[in-house]
Specification:
The structure holds 3 protein chains of 3 kinds. Chain A has helices spanning about 20-30, 40-50, 85-95, 105-110, 140-155; strands at about 35, 65, 75, 100-105, 130-135. Chain A has 5 helices and 5 strands, in the order αβαββαβαβα. Chain B has 7 helices and 8 strands, in the order βαββαβαβββαβααα. The chains are: A alpha/beta, B alpha/beta, C mainly alpha.
């Protein structure tokens, strides 16, 4: 049996790193935010542009997934109409916890310019929202900044604690 | 007392119109001025009654009887080479004389001409479907039914197309407000959470000019945000913008035995 | 956290999936990455073959026609952006042209040239986007990245002009609000000079790619009769053997002064449509070169007017508003009350990148249109799926939806 010649406590330290569970879990969570491809309208095009060659979302660890079951963050990109409202709830329920929601663009925030009979006046009437991005449509830079803010928010949380209910319903 | 508002047309109206203002007309010209249109009109007139015909903005408009529509379009498609139905829909004249005006926008690619065929129906009457002639009318007629409640006879699938099947009301009627009625306002809440959730979720905020004093105060304090509900004093500490590089994952890379603590009590 | 409660019944409660006749019902959408938006398809399957298709739309119905009835004409302009949001300016243009025809306005030549530049840039953007997404759906990630790279160049040029990447609102009733910025023509020329090589790159990747050919050739064949009957226009119709381009047949703006070809094919399959999009990009580039020359000629001739002169309908130039009392009053009335077009109706078709984009306006002399009907090409290009999909297999659905190039802002309006 070979003998260890290296004294780890003195030369270069142990080949292990210690940290708190909170930090390491949040580090993992915040750096691999897999987003649901949920392009509803115009903002969806900007969301695609963020994922494409120039803005390159992959370097944030943000990879678009087509299934809500594989996604951590739902980017509601576009107008939510009354006909579609039940599906956003279904998709949100299908996402595994912990889950976050970014409401992208004026339409998803408040209904925006579509102050009409067919438009839900803000997707936060249906699901809890963590981050609202202004703009019509927000630029890809805005979405990137939003994702960075969300990462910050995740890092500030206690990882072990269950997420608090974000709304009474 | 509230001001009386007419119920039959709740769309936006000009708040001021000069008493002596006479709206000009888009010029109409006689059909005879265009040889192609004149020939088409003669062919249609030979078989069907044409109430009125004129040319407006380079396109011929003809008014026919509602019962003739299938025959007229069949004639136009098969003999006059109007092979495409570009568009069809209705105009709501219920407030004026309780009728709908239906228009069909026809295109002939060989003649490079467009004709608009129009007729009136009374409220409650149905139109004849032209879905057998032009498949595009399948969806157009469904859309017309969805938006105006005008049904089409002999249509294979007369159901709503744009609004959900359980929707109430016909959105493009002039009596339907832009922001929807009571049913529309609570549609998604009722459907997803049930009526008892209305109190918790609250009514829709539709006032586009609404400015919340709390929000506007906070806009002036970017970087000095406080939790919602706290009183703003004006000397809030700056909230530092930290990024992963600065305040990232806490790692111990060199273990110092002297300063380490052994935790005996896991419940500490 | 426990599952958040809701009252939704199971979605497929009323649908029998496995039936005695061995038919399977497959639900596709409304959230599906390759549905190009919010399309929901109910597909009846015999094994993998579709026997009945039922497209369900309306998930993006935002009530634009209703909005138009409650807005003054200029107010409605930004709303048209959100119809075909991949080529916003072409919608702006369609609406502006319809109102101009209604009130009988003649637009200054320089504005016309700028409009044509914007329209063709939008066409290129739309076609590049189409290529990117369709290739992505079929699995060609490289083409997606390449085409988006080129699209971003055009986005930058457009952004320099109007300040927005996606929703331009770059065209006004009566002209254009601004002159081209410095460097516009230079940037555009640089882009156009590179474009042939770029298109060749895409074609090198796709044209003889075995997967691409298998997904495209002989798939989704639309016969001429079917295309006409379903009201197909644009590339969908041209791929089915009808060389109908409104720019050529019923020319608007200065399209009768520029030289370009209308590519068409009589195959009617996915591959024919793909070829037509690629050829149209080349034709657009050709038109853009000619527009640049026309613009430079305008500059040389000293034609500086950008808006039509019609004090009843169009505000005076800003310099007049700031210096002349009457222009200021006029501007105030036009902004607060809106213009009042004559009584009458008009249907104006334009060739948007997707097909015939028509605006039907019925005006009763009020500042608000009495009825505005948007004739969006994608509406019927979605409808045709009802007749087109039966007989095809599941994987073909994605490639057929891809080549129809439907945009749901336009389908549902």
């Amino acid at each position: 049996m070979a003998q260890h010649k290296v004294n780890y406590t003195q030369d270069g330290g142990l080949p292990v790193a210690l940290t708190s569970i909170d930090k390491i879990v949040n580090w993992g969570r915040s750096n691999s935010l897999w987003a649901l491809t949920y392009g509803l309208a115009c903002c969806g095009i900007e969301m695609m542009a963020s994922g494409a060659s120039r803005f390159d979302f992959d370097r944030f660890g943000t990879i678009f997934r087509a299934s809500p079951r594989q996604a951590d963050v739902m980017i509601v990109a576009g107008t939510l109409t009354k006909k579609h409202a039940e599906f956003i709830k279904r998709l949100y329920d299908q996402m595994t916890e912990p889950r976050w929601v970014i409401s992208m663009g004026s339409c998803a925030n408040t209904g925006g310019m579509f102050n009409t009979y067919a438009t839900v006046q803000g997707c936060d009437r249906i699901i809890p929202v963590d981050l609202y991005l202004p703009g019509c449509a927000p630029r890809p830079e805005t979405l990137q900044y939003g994702v960075m803010l969300l990462q910050k928010k995740i890092r500030a949380n206690k990882a072990g604690n269950a997420q608090k209910a974000k709304r009474l319903m | 007392m509230r001001a009386y508002k007419p119920k039959d047309n709740v769309q936006a109206k000009a708040y001021y119109t000069d008493r002596f203002y006479v709206a000009p007309q888009v010029p109409k010209t006689a059909v005879e001025e265009d040889a192609v249109f004149a020939a088409d009109l003669a062919a249609i007139k030979a078989k069907f009654a044409v109430k009125e015909a004129y040319i407006q903005v380079e396109q011929m408009v003809i008014y026919i009887n509602a019962c003739d529509i299938y025959g007229v379009l069949e004639l136009m498609r098969d003999e006059l080479a109007y092979t495409q139905l570009s568009e069809m829909s209705a105009i709501d004249w219920l407030a004026k004389d309780n009728s709908f005006e239906i228009f069909y926008q026809m295109l002939s690619m060989t003649k490079r001409k467009r004709i608009r065929v129009k007729y009136f129906i009374q409220k409650g009457e149905a139109v004849d479907s032209v879905e057998k002639l032009f498949r595009s009318a399948d969806w157009s007629e469904r859309e017309m039914f969805d938006m105006f409640g005008i049904e089409a006879n002999n249509h294979p699938f007369m159901k709503r197309i744009l609004m959900p099947y359980d929707w109430e009301g016909y959105p493009l009627l002039k009596s339907y407000p832009l922001e929807g009625d009571e049913f529309a306002a609570w549609y998604e809440v009722d459907k997803i959470y049930g009526k008892e959730a209305r109190d918790i979720i609250g009514p829709e905020l539709r006032d586009t000019a609404r400015v919340d004093s709390y929000d506007s105060e906070r806009f002036a304090r970017l970087g000095h945000e406080v939790p919602k509900g706290t009183k703003i004093t004006g000397d809030e500490p700056a909230v530092s913008q930290s990024y992963q590089e600065e305040d990232g994952v806490f790692l111990i890379k060199k273990l110092d035995k002297e300063s380490s603590v052994i935790i005996d009590d896991p419940q500490r | 956290m426990a599952q958040v409660k809701n009252r939704l019944t199971p979605f497929f409660e009323n649908i029998t999936f496995e039936r005695d006749d061995n038919e399977l019902v497959l639900n596709f959408g409304p959230q599906h990455p390759s549905a190009h938006g919010q399309l929901r398809l109910m597909l009846h399957l015999q094994q993998e073959q579709i026997v009945k298709a039922h497209p369900d739309i309306g998930y993006l119905h935002r009530g634009m026609e209703k909005m138009a009835e409650n807005m003054i004409y200029n107010e409605f302009m930004p709303t048209t952006d959100r119809m075909d949001y991949i080529a916003s300016s072409s919608n702006n243009y369609g609406f502006a042209l319809a109102v101009e025809k209604l009130i009988g306005l003649e637009v200054p030549r320089r504005a016309k040239v700028i409009r044509m530049l914007l329209l063709e840039i939008n066409r290129l953007m739309s076609h590049l986007f189409w290529l990117a997404t369709t290739a992505l759906d079929i699995g060609a990630m490289t083409v997606f990245l390449f085409a988006f790279r080129e699209r971003e160049y055009l986005m930058d040029i457009i952004e320099g002009y109007c300040g927005a990447r996606l929703t331009h609102a770059a065209i006004r009733i009566g002209g254009v609000p601004l002159d081209l910025q410095d460097g516009f023509l230079h940037q555009l020329r640089v882009f156009l000079n590179k474009l042939p090589q770029n298109i060749k790159d895409y074609e090198d990747l796709l044209d003889s790619n075995r997967i691409w050919l298998m997904r495209m050739e002989e798939v989704g064949v639309i016969s001429t009769e079917m295309a006409l009957s379903w009201g197909c226009t644009g590339p969908m119709l041209r791929a089915s053997g009808v060389a109908w381009d409104i720019r050529k047949e019923e020319p608007y703006e200065l399209y009768d002064e520029v030289e370009f070809n209308v590519p068409y094919s009589d195959k009617g399959d996915n591959y024919a449509r793909y070829r037509i999009y690629m050829e149209e990009m080349r034709e657009s580039a050709k038109i853009l070169y000619q527009c640049i020359e026309m613009y430079e000629k305008c500059e040389k001739d000293g034609q500086t007017e950008l808006m039509a002169h019609a004090p009843k309908y169009i505000s005076a130039p800003k310099i007049d508003i700031m210096t002349q009392n009457y222009s200021l009053m006029q501007h105030f009335v036009l902004v607060t009350q809106g213009m009042r077009p004559p009584v009458g109706e008009v249907y104006v078709p334009t060739e948007s990148p997707k097909g015939e984009l028509g605006f039907y306006i019925n005006s009763q002399g009020d500042p608000y249109p009495y009825r505005l009907k948007l004739r969006a090409p994608s509406f019927w290009h979605t409808g045709i799926l009802t007749d087109l999909l039966p007989g095809h297999y599941i994987p073909d659905v994605v490639s057929i939806i891809g080549t129809t190039n439907i945009v749901f802002g336009e389908v549902d309006r």
